[in-house]
Amino acid sequence: MKTLVLALFTSLVCIQVNAQEKWISLFDGKTTNGWHSYGEKTAGAAWKAVDGSLILDPTAKVDGKGGGDLVTNEGYNEFHLQLEWKISKNGNSGIIFFVQDNPAKYDNTWHSGPEMQVLDNDGHPDAKIISHRAGNLYDLIVGKEGYVKPYEQWNKVDIISSKGVLELKMNDVTVVNTHLGDDAWKELIRRSKFAKGESPDFGKVFSGHIALQDHGNEVSFRNIRIQKL
Fold first, then answer.
1. Which of 58, 98, 150, 200 is deepest in the core (most CB within 10 A)?
2. Which of 8-17, 109-118, 154-163 has the least mean pLDDT?
3. 3-state secondary structure the chain
4. Where along the chain do its domains lie?
């Protein structure tokens, strides 16, 4: 009996270890290695690693340069992205995914990739638009309300794309769940700002890079990791 119990315990430990091994850290807490500003080869000087957080410091820009959306060097197909964000008072940012890292074809990351909104809901005017509030699939789906913490507090998010289903979680609560590429998805895009000519390929490719948005306001990210599903 003791041998059987020991074997079961060892098996459970191995399962837990293997599950942990699936997570890939996207931020080492000390550098911007593995990231670059969109259209550049490295991260702009306004993106800084400070005390274990990846921070956009807009005051570090020179003549408006040195920032830009921060993009992973690697692209991803099906994935589970997890991170924490903290927005400044009246601030705006976002987590963009399925980004096609091709600035010659797409002027901005959001011309190809959908966005989970990062926002000070109590202070930024964009919050007055119901589909632009924090946790929403920006301009596409209004998420469940009541799970976003105020500015200068950390919010945990999960973005999961698996087998044609997209799930967004805010502080461990599913706030958006939708299917990718079906008729309902196409109708969401048709009714959105992304139906304009500048975004003809928006929401059509379901693999790509992850981007952290520079919307001109200070924003912090930490514990950024991903699982390939």
1. 98
2. 8-17
3. CHHHHHHHHHHHHHHHHHHHHCEEECCCCCCCCCEEECCCCCCCCCEEEECCEEEECHHHCECCECCCCEEECCCECCEEEEEEEEECCCCEEEEEEEECCCCCCCCCHHHCCCEEEEECCCCCHHHHCHHHCCCCECCCECCCCCCCCCCCCCEEEEEEEECCEEEEEECCEEEEEEECCCHHHHHHHHCCHHHCCCCCCCCCCCCEEEEECCCCCCEEEEEEEEEEC
4. 25-228
Tens of pLDDT, residue by residue over 141-200, are 999 999 999 999 999 999 999 999 999 999 999 999 999 999 999 999 999 999 988 899
Tracing tokens 């805010």 back to the chain, one arrives at: 170
Q: Using CA atoms, how far apart are residues 127 and 133, in angstroms rounded to an integer?
A: 5
Nearest-angstrom CA–CA distance, 27 and 169: 20
What confidence tens digit (pLDDT) does each residue in 93-102 have?
A: 999 999 999 9
